[in-house]
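Purpose: get a first structural picture of the assembly so the mutagenesis plan has something to point at.
Setup: three entries, given in the order below. No constraints added.
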Amino acid sequence: MNPEQVSQRQQLDEASSVPVLLYFATAVFWLLVGTLLGVAASLKFDLPNWLGSIPELTFGRIRPAHLNVVVYGWASLAGAGCLAWLTSRLCLAPLQLRGCLVASVVLWNLGLIYGTGSLLLGYSLGVEWLEFPLPAAALIGAAFLLFAASITATFRKRTVEHLYVSLWYVMASIVWFPLLYVTANLPIYSGVTHAAVNWWYGHNALGVWFTPTGLALAYYFIPKVIGRPVYSYYLSLLGFWAFALFYNWNGIHHLVGGPLPTWLQTISIIASVMMGIPVMAVAVNHHLTTVGHFSLLRTSPTLRFTVFGAMSYTAVSVQGSIEALRSMQERVHFTHYTIGHAHLGVYAFLTMILFGAMYYITPRVARWNWPHPRLIKAHFWLSATGILLYVAATCLGGWLQGGAMNDPKTPFVDVVALTRPYLTTRTVSGILLGGGHLIFAYLFVRVLTRSGPRRVEGGEE
Amino acid sequence: MIFIRLWVFFAGVLATIFLGWAALVGVPGLQLRSVPAQPDLRPYTFEQMHGRQIYIREGCLYCHSQQTRPEGFGADQKRLWGRPAVPGDYVYDQPHLLGTSRTGPDLLNIGARQPSRDWHFAHLYNPRAVAPKSLMPPFPWLFEEKASVGPGDVVVNADRNVCATREAQDLVEYLLGLNHTYPVKR
Amino acid sequence: MNVPPAVLVLLAVAACGAALALAAFVWAVRNGQLDNSNAGALVIFDDEEPVGTPTDQLFEQRKP
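Result (structure tokens, whole complex):
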């Protein structure tokens, strides 16, 4: 044992603790808010008149509120906290500009409060994934830049010679996302061009911020927890650049069959299929790193959540490549299938990896271990079951919905009626997910407040 | 070291996003900028613009699309939802409202398909009164119950003197204006 | 399908970029730049958390 290195890692973690825990705490808050909004929105399909006289809670307002809260609140705040910690570890440099990170948390949350409140009160820009009024978007944009500043400063203070693969994704995303967010929020577009900008943004937000976050964390935690290096570094290199090249061209697959030039739709479909290359590179890498060590899934919550997430990445990407094809789009566009795909990505892939990462990072920065391991297991099973049920219900329901919609002899009201059991199943799955989130929040508060039994990790002092 | 120079990495990162933007937004934008509005498409009136804002405010776009697809892309044509949409149909739309979900039917030509103001008022007030299997939320706050009805009041439900507010009237004005059935002129 | 010339240019640029990257990769392999590449994968380990030691066994029972 090298005492200098032990204390260095601990020192790095301690230096990160305040900003990281601030990101995490606010992320957990928005997770609960977002889940509540989501379950409420789903319930309104089962009971359309429920709370029907309250304008602030009408489906058309809480649905975008749900999306923006889980995406820019939970996923982004948790992601930023994890990546800040990770950057410090991978650069072997203490987190820099911590004041900027604290300011970032403040501005980010102010933006979320302003934006969410605006949506509920009826001030939406009406653009999917970009509904927040400009002041809220500006706050979030500024918060992201402060985050990027800290990452950059930490990167410049690095003492490592080699840049680990996760860092490529982090450094790329902090360049990509501000460019994307500012360009898409400019109030200068109209007509079908605006639709193109909208979905260039929508898919790229996944491609340049959320997916890199998930991959960066998976590339670190799978080898780190198992104790084996990534299977093939060549593959990581290929995977990264193929990802950067192809993902950027996917966006118009959201508009197949729409009033946009055919060549444009075709390019996006081809790019969506080409994504199979980087996705396979990642899948092979992760699988061959884990193979032979699946038994560690029994003992490590981080590995459980992360491997679930990594497998879901493969699944959602393969699904997406197929979904983009014209013949699929003809059937599933405009249906609940799309929603299922979205949740397979943002929840089964990204959110599960974020849970895994937070289960690893939190005790190391808070210097207090998780109490009640059984509750962690319950969280895992509720989330895993919940999301699998969610995706199955919405994808199957959407598939049938699309088939019926394409049959002109089926009256439209009957198309709607056939989706109802699947939508009810979706509500049930949302409640399962909510249960898992409540457990997670409870455990997180216990660690922050250092209450509950003091546990020592098995086999370690 | 994998990246011979760090600047190669950042150059690649910038190049990939720029290329994607150029292909998906830049070039199409230039191409579409020269597409004029369809000659038979009228700009929105003041009331219709107001109605459009209410459409956005209440999130109608999350259940309704406004893009009729051609034959071979679903049953839009067979369902008589209107001829396939073209870019020139959307020139006055800011923001665009193409939509990505059809929990409810496409609305690009709803003004032609359902020209009855009374139907729209009743439907917005209580969707299930006119379409029992509908999942659409009700919008009672777009209406008001008046003690007594006077001239100029738009009565929706005579039993309780439910009248359409300005907002409901403008929203319906917008919906009735959604009529792109004119023939496409190149 | 009517493809604007500008898009063909973009596709050509992208293809050139990809070809350049591939060429650089092949050069790097030939030149031994990547011989030590798997060393990069070892960066995440150190003396206290070396290769071969799992680092998260939260569910393991503590030995009495």
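DSSP finds 14 helices and no strands in chain A.
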